[in-house]
């Protein structure tokens, strides 16, 4: 007798809203296919600010941590995913020269072994075949994003080892680990040129001028997931994080139709794999599907 073991995807993110700006259309696509998708949110985003001018009010600032939980719940419903907070406290984005020390007790300061424990427990309970996270630079240099990368790699390697983290559940080895490669130079350039060609002003001109080509990671992309029909779902989820996004800002300045035509994929780097999955590929579950359908 054969029994299908459902496919499960775990996306590890630093703050509420990150799941809606990185890989959201991919998640919505897999949810539509019947894949179980779980978002792990490392921190509550307590030290974020209000980035939407329309909500920059004292009553909003006062309730910000609670509001961010409510926003996350709405985004979760829109994306059709499950979601859990891992319970760490936002480190904030340090600014100044020299940089101020990180606040005591924040996520970035928790020792790695301890910081990865809740994620190991979640992996052993949810049993994802695929995990997505940020690259070693964090995608952008927020200490929580870098820490998110570190615990994801650590937990990917530890969750299947019965000698590590005893007491946190039955060992489970995920098959593949991916890094988001969403903000690449070729994509931004392609969108920029398409907007100009359509006779509009590009929101990316300044970005492109200041882009250090050495920091572009597009050569590392192994995997492009076609998910253009879910870009609108992604945008709706992002707007649900109302305090964190200016609906009149750069995020929404590129027409959806242009994005769907010019760059219809979300892109990833396959960073670890314990299954045979030759790259390039267009499916995060490539090499996994055949193994889980029969057991
Ligand atoms: Zn973040």
Automatic annotation (TrEMBL):
<comment type="subunit">
    <text>Monomer.</text>
</comment>
<dbReference type="GO" id="GO:0016811">
    <property type="term" value="F:hydrolase activity, acting on carbon-nitrogen (but not peptide) bonds, in linear amides"/>
</dbReference>
<feature type="binding site">
    <location>
        <position position="18"/>
    </location>
    <ligand>
        <name>Zn(2+)</name>
    </ligand>
</feature>
<dbReference type="InterPro" id="IPR017811">
    <property type="entry name" value="Mca"/>
</dbReference>
<dbReference type="GO" id="GO:0010127">
    <property type="term" value="P:mycothiol-dependent detoxification"/>
</dbReference>
<dbReference type="InterPro" id="IPR003737">
    <property type="entry name" value="GlcNAc_PI_deacetylase-related"/>
</dbReference>
<feature type="binding site">
    <location>
        <position position="145"/>
    </location>
    <ligand>
        <name>Zn(2+)</name>
    </ligand>
</feature>
<protein>
    <recommendedName>
        <fullName>Mycothiol S-conjugate amidase</fullName>
        <ecNumber>3.5.1.115</ecNumber>
    </recommendedName>
</protein>
<keyword id="KW-0378">Hydrolase</keyword>
<comment type="function">
    <text>A mycothiol (MSH, N-acetylcysteinyl-glucosaminyl-inositol) S-conjugate amidase, it recycles conjugated MSH to the N-acetyl cysteine conjugate (AcCys S-conjugate, a mercapturic acid) and the MSH precursor. Involved in MSH-dependent detoxification of a number of alkylating agents and antibiotics.</text>
</comment>
<dbReference type="GO" id="GO:0010126">
    <property type="term" value="P:mycothiol metabolic process"/>
</dbReference>
<dbReference type="GO" id="GO:0008270">
    <property type="term" value="F:zinc ion binding"/>
</dbReference>
<keyword id="KW-0862">Zinc</keyword>
<feature type="binding site">
    <location>
        <position position="15"/>
    </location>
    <ligand>
        <name>Zn(2+)</name>
    </ligand>
</feature>
<keyword id="KW-0479">Metal-binding</keyword>
<dbReference type="Pfam" id="PF02585">
    <property type="entry name" value="PIG-L"/>
</dbReference>
<comment type="similarity">
    <text>Belongs to the MshB deacetylase family. Mca subfamily.</text>
</comment>
<dbReference type="InterPro" id="IPR024078">
    <property type="entry name" value="LmbE-like_dom_sf"/>
</dbReference>
